Amino acid sequence: MFDPVERAPAYIKVSSAIEHKILSRALREGDVLPAELELAQQFRVHRSTVREALRQLENAGLVARPPGAKRMIVSRPEAAKVASGMRHALVLHEVSFVDVWEAMMVIEPEVAALAAMRRNQADLVALTQTSEAFRDSPEGDPTSVNIVALFFEQLGAASRNQVLVLAKQSLAQCLAPSLARMIDTVPQARARITDAQRRIINAVRDKNADEARKWMSKHVRDFKRGYEVAGISPDTPISV
């Protein structure tokens, strides 16, 4: 009737115990963990078990070893790493372009509206510089898609909402390969992206949330039209 209970390896139990301390805020970012030998004594396990547990936590971004340091410190997973893990999950679940696009249609206009309400002067400077970098990038430049992604990332930062920042980064990564193809294939793509970025920046500068939301909606909607012109099927599964 019942399956045997699996016994978790000792390193997983050690990793889980340390992870619980971190997630419960008993250990906070920047706190220095005890040395491996001391941890081994506390958990009553071999030092190699502690080392494997710390390796697992490091891979998850919960601990890190600063350059030249002998002991681990509690860290915060980088947004890019979280987004990368989410992107892998979406790929494995065979999510299509249209699924990602629909999510962007929900998230990105609200991010732009929040950015308009919460931005500071540094945000405006960063957005303007990024938009100009895209405008001035030559045809066929493989870094163009990274510049477009950076524009979305900077808007997320200006929104001052970390949940939205983490959610949207994985979506941008998912669209990157097909976006690069669209930019290089559709003749008017660069001009339309540049125009949309300019109008979004103007709305953000004027703190006009409704205008920022409207132009971001048009911008993301334009992506779908560009993909169709480029011959990319909406049902095409995203790839890494």
From TrEMBL:
Q: Which UniProt keywords apply?
A: DNA-binding, Transcription, Transcription regulation
Claim: Magnesium is one of the keywords in the record: no
Reply yes or no: does the keyword Transcription regulation apply.
yes
Q: Which residues form the HTH gntR-type domain?
A: 8-77
Domain of life (superkingdom): Bacteria
* One of the record's GO molecular function terms: DNA-binding transcription factor activity
Q: Which InterPro entries match?
A: GntR_C, TF_FadR/GntR_C, Tscrpt_reg_HTH_GntR, WH-like_DNA-bd_sf, WH_DNA-bd_sf
PANTHER family to which the protein is assigned, alphabetical: TRANSCRIPTIONAL REGULATOR, GNTR FAMILY, UXU OPERON TRANSCRIPTIONAL REGULATOR
Q: What is this protein called?
A: HTH gntR-type domain-containing protein
Organism, by scientific name, is: Steroidobacter agaridevorans
